[in-house]
Batch of 2 targets.
Target 1
Amino acid sequence: MSQTAPIIVVGGGIAGLVTALAAAPAPVVLLMRNAGSNGAASALAQGGIAAAHSQGDSPAAHARDTCAAGSHHNDAAMVDVLTRSAADAIDWLQRLGVAFDRNDDGTLQLGREGGHDRSRIVHAGGDATGAVVMAALVAAARNAVHIERHTGVDVDGLMLRNGGVSGVCITRRDGSQSALEGCAVVLATGGIGGLFAHTSNPPDADGSGLALAIAAGADTRDLEFVQFHPTALAVPGLHSLPLVTEALRGAGAHLHDAQGRALMKGVHPLGDLAPRDVVARQVWAACEGEGAWLDARAIGDVFTRDFPTVLAACLAHGIDPRSQPIPVRPAAHFHMGGIHTDADGRTSLPGLFAVGEVACNGVHGANRLASNSLLEGVVFGRRLGQCLRDIDGAAAGGRSFKFLHRGPSLDAAQLTRMRHLMTQAMGPLRTGSLLQVALRDCDALACVGWQGALARALVSAALRRRRSLGAHFRDDGPLSGHSTKGAWRVA
Ligand SMILES: Cc1cc2nc3c(=O)[nH]c(=O)nc-3n(C[C@H](O)[C@H](O)[C@H](O)COP(=O)(O)OP(=O)(O)OC[C@H]3O[C@@H](n4cnc5c(N)ncnc54)[C@H](O)[C@@H]3O)c2cc1C
C-alpha cells in the first residue's frame, strides 16, 4: 500500500534550506550533519550576492560577465534564468528578514568583485553576508511547520528501487543507523574542497553527496572544473584556511610578491580584479617561490566596518592588515562541476534531485563568476522546491529495493596523501603527466576509501579535457600557452 512520504533534503546550507522552504506546504525532512549553519560553506560567504540592481546595469550585462568568467562553457539558458531571477531572489531574502547593507540615501550598497564590469554585489554585515543570510534562513526553517529538521545526521547511503532513488541511509552521531523513505531525495551537500590540501571550505565539504550520486550511476558534468580562490590566508598547518575576500581588491588592495612587485601588472586588463583563475595562477606561481601578499593597508579606517571577518581572522593569526601586507595562497574554493541536473534540479536518476554546489546545470561554465553561487542556491533552490511541492507524495512501495552505502573512509594518512596528490595534479596549473600519476594513485586509493573513487572521477575528467578552458588550465595542452612566470594568454 502506498503512503505519503516526505521530500528528503540532505544539507542545511543555502541551497537545502531554500529548497525546503520553497516546498511548503509539502512535508519536508531536512537532514543535516550540524545544527544551525555550522558546517555549511554558505555561512562563510564574505563577498555577497550578485544582482543587476544599479541604474544602467541589467540581467544581460550580468549574464555577459557570467559567461565571460565561465569561458562561454556556460549553459546560456541557465545563465538567463539565474541573472533574470537575481533581483527577485534579493527581494525574497529581504522579505525573510535579511537586512542588506545600505547607503545613507537608503539604496542598496553595491560592491565590486573580480570579473564583474561594475559594482553589483549586495552584502550584509560588511563581509558577513553568508552568516547574515543563513541566520535568516535557519530561523525561517525552524519556524516552518512543514519542515522536520534532524541534526547530527550523516547521509551515507541511498535506497534504490525500480532504477531510481527512493530514500536515504543515515548514521547518527551516536552510531545508530536507519533508512528513511521519501517521495524525492534532494542532495544539497555542497562542495569538494576537502579533497585538496588547502581549501577555503569547511570540513563538511568532503564531496560525500557527489560520491553517493556517482556510485548510484547518476550522470555528472564538468567535474574537472575546480575554482581556486587566489587569496586564502596563508596559515601554516591549517587545512581549512580563512578567506581574504576579493572585495578587498575591489576596494583597492593589491597583490605583490616577496620583492614587492605587483603580481597582476601587465597580466590582464582588469589587473587585480581579473577573473579568479587568472589571479589564482599568478598567486600559485608566486607561492611556488617565496610567497604572495595582499597589501590592503590603503583601506585604512573602514577596515573594521567593511571587512570585520577578514580583520578578525588576520588578527587571530597575528597579522594586522591595517599595518602589514596579508600573506595569501590559493585554496580550493568552488566546484563548478557536479551532479548533472536540469533547471529544476532533476538528475538522470528518477527520484534523485540535486541543487547548489553539489549540482551542475551548467550555469557557471568553466569558472564561476564571483558572488554567483549564493544566488544559484536561492534561484535554483526556489525553483526546485516549487516543483517538488507538486510531486506525487506516495512512497514507491514494493519489496525489491537495495541499499547503496558510501563505504569506508580513507584513514588520516591516506587522506593527507590524496589531498597532496589532488593539489599537485588538479590545482590551478595541470599537466597530463601529473594527472596520469594521480590517476594511478587514485585507482589504488579507490579500493580503500570512497574519497579515492571520487578523486579518481575528477582526475579522469581532467585527463579527458586536453585543452585548457577556464579553471582547467593544462600547461601541456595543445592550445595552452601559459607561462608560470606571468604572461596571460587565452588558451
Ligand atoms: C569562504 C567562502 C566564501 C564564499 N563567499 C561567497 C560569496 O561571497 N558569494 C557567493 O555567492 N558564494 C560564496 N562562496 C561560495 C558559496 O558559499 C557556496 O558555493 C554555497 O554556499 C554552497 O551552498 P550549498 O548549500 O550548496 O552548500 P553548503 O552551504 O556547503 O551546505 C552543504 C550542507 O550539506 C551538509 N552535508 C554535507 N554532506 C552531508 C552528508 N553526507 N549528510 C548530511 N549533511 C551533509 C553540510 O553539513 C552543510 O549543511 C564562498 C565559499 C566559501 C567557502
Target 2
Amino acid sequence: MKTWFATGILLLSTGCASVHDNKPPHWTYEGAEGPEHWGELADAYKACATGKNQSPVNLDNQHAVAAKLPPLQLAYGAGGYEELNNGHTIQVNYQPGGSLTLDGHRYGLKQFHFHAPSENQIDGKTYPLEAHLVHADQDNNLAVIAIMFTESAQDNPNLEPFWSQMPTHPDEKTALMPLVDVAKLLPAKRDYYRFSGSLTTPPCSEGVVWLVMKQPVNASKTQIEKFTQIMGHPNNRPIQPVNARPLLK
Ligand SMILES: [Zn+2]
C-alpha cells in the first residue's frame, strides 16, 4: 500500500528529496534505492528492514487459521474525485464519506491505488494486478482492503471510468467527473483473509489491518498493460516473512 495517513499522502508520495532536508528521501522499486535498501535510506524507514510484521505476505491456505470472520461492513458510494500518478502508483483520492466498519470501529476510505504485479500472494500465486483500498480511523490507524485481478479476455468496465483518464506522467493528476464508486471494483463474494501488516512502501509502518479478498475480479490484458506501461516498472514490494503472525481465513 501506498500511504500511511490521509494528510501525509500527497507530500509523502510525491516528494523526492534528499536526506538533508526534512522531506522523506526518495525510494524506488529497483536498484540502490530499491526494496532491499529501503531500511537504510532513512531512520524513518527502519521498519522496512527490522519490522517483524511487514507486508506483503503469501496467504498460504495450509497455514492460515480458520476463523469465523464476519461479513465486511462497507459503505462507499461515488467519491473518487481525483486520479494521481505519483511515480510509484496510480491513486484515486476519495472524498470523505465512504467507510469500512470493523470490530465496531469506523475507518474512512481515503484513496485506492494499484500494484502490478500483485504484492500479496494467495497460495504462492502472484496476480497481474492488485488494488489497495486505504482506510484510516480518526486516530490514523489504517485498514487496507486488497482486491486481486486475474487476466480476462474482456475489459473490466468498472475500471474504465478512471482507467481511460490515467495520468501518464509522475506528478500529473486528473479530475474525475462523474465521481468514481470503488464499490464497483469489489468481487461478488466478499470472503477475505485478515492479518496484521504494514505499509508496503516506506516508511513500512506496522499496525495496519489487512483484509485481502479471496475472490479475484477481472481486468483485460490491455488494461493491465496500460497500467504497467504508464508506470514503466513493476511496483510491487517482495513478499515478507510471516513470522509469528496468525493469518486468518
Ligand atoms: Zn498499495
